[in-house]
Design a protein that fits this description.
249 residues, alpha/beta, Rossmann fold, seven-stranded parallel sheet, 7 strands, 45% helix, binds NADPH dihydro-nicotinamide-adenine-dinucleotide phosphate
């Protein structure tokens, strides 16, 4: 892996933190971004450094374009290059039916999940694309099985934002395929992280796990393994793929 540099947005906990930790063991220098959880992000960085890796944490609300531009400039200052991006930062809101949703809620969901991923990808492409003098790279977007299932009664808005991520992945992959950049998505099922608490149901994985063919929820590390494979040279001919990591759901 050598001196490759990976940026993981929303790396302070959950799938993003697991991805950062696994990437460091594979030799990546890792930058994680966080929105609010500075102490948690610093703890992830400390864990990587204790194991002999290189990492840094930078603040960034991916819904804020100026923040994203500053984040990528910060990665350049810290590590001098960028080889891979994981568009992991994502949010949902309290479980609700569509007739209860406000425009403000929809704007918050789409600003982080969709616009944030687009703008982060834009900054990555400007640095990685051979069209812009870069050396190529790889992007993995975090979609969700919700893009297929729709999350009725819970968060159809979030599910629709993830469907947008699927289409974004398909289009961008083809757009930059001849410029040395591969773009793929993972679609996790129910994974043990704190995101379910932000939807108002901390125990959601336990409730729905029996509907998973494997009869269990997934661990963030299992999603991280799929992400790292898609970023790796082992996936050199894979682009525009939507990889379900769902236990069969
Ligand atoms: P968590 O809620 O555990 O973590 C989310 C991370 O994203 C945190 O580090 C948070 O940072 C960061 N974040 C949130 N909003 C922003 C923002 N506007 N700007 C920058 N960072 C932000 O989520 P998960 O680990 O569960 O989810 C990671 C991704 O995987 C998401 O895209 C999610 O939609 C997707 N996913 C998760 C599934 C699951 O079951 N867990 C299933 C399918 C998809 P901070 O704490 O600093 O705010």
């Amino acid at each position: 892996m050598g001196d490759k540099v990976l940026l993981v947005t929303g790396g302070s906990r959950g799938i993003g933190a697991a991805t950062a930790l696994l990437a460091a063991t594979q030799g990546y220098r890792v930058c994680i971004s966080y929105r609010e959880a500075r102490a948690a992000a610093d703890a992830v960085v400390a864990q990587i450094k204790q194991a002999g890796g290189q990492a840094t944490a930078l603040p960034c609300d991916v819904a804020n374009e100026a923040d994203v531009v500053a984040l990528f400039e910060g990665v350049e200052r810290a590590f001098g290059r960028l080889d891979a991006l994981v568009n992991n930062a994502g949010v949902l809101e309290l479980q609700a039916r569509v007739e209860q949703m406000t425009a403000a809620r929809l704007q918050r969901i789409f600003a982080t999940n969709v616009t944030g991923s687009f703008i982060c990808a834009r900054e990555a492409i400007r640095r990685m694309s051979t069209r812009h003098g870069g050396q190529g790279g790889a992007i993995v977007n975090l979609s969700s099985v919700a893009a297929r299932l729709g999350a009725p009664g819970e968060y159809v808005d979030y599910a629709a934002s993830k469907a947008a991520i699927d289409t974004f992945t398909l289009g961008l992959a083809r757009e930059v395929a001849a410029e040395g950049i591969r773009v793929n998505a993972v679609r996790p099922g129910v994974i043990y992280t704190e995101i379910h608490a932000t939807g108002g149901e901390p125990g959601r994985v336990e409730r729905v796990k029996d509907s998973v063919p494997m009869q269990r929820g997934g661990q963030p590390e299992e999603v991280a393994q799929s992400i790292l494979w898609l970023l790796s040279p082992q996936a050199s001919y894979v682009t525009g793929a939507l990889l379900d990591v769902t236990g069969g759901r």
